[in-house]
Amino acid sequence: MIPREQERVPLLKRLGPGLITGAADDDPSGIATYSRTGAQYGYGLLWSVLLTTPLVIGIQIFANTINIAADLGAMGNALQMLAGGVSEIYIVFFALLSLTLQIFVPFPRYAPLLKWMTLALPPPSSAWRSTSPTSIPSRR
Prior knowledge:
Layout: H1 4-7, H2 11-15, H3 18-22, H4 28-41, H5 48-83, H6 87-104, H7 107-118, H8 126-129
């Protein structure tokens, strides 16, 4: 049963950061793989967290740096196609704008905007439907 206070809160405010996280690429095949692996191995592979965590952190930092540069480049090129001019200037503009907003605007203030922006994502592709349980490796 929903408490009275939550009945008056609009749906978008109740969704929370889970909507943004869900749009970040936790697809059904990944969830199925993690669940099946956890069911088969239990805590038996927990020791590997000590070895893999530093590697994952390094890869994530490197990959995010490349991704940010690619996103800024794409935004600069898109604006160049729309407005003309030099894309490098637009890239620097978008980088400074993004950095300024991240430093001076608190997350709770722009989180609703991120929620609405997730609605602009394309619908799932046919790759979601092509995943079968037989594609998950077995322990045998």
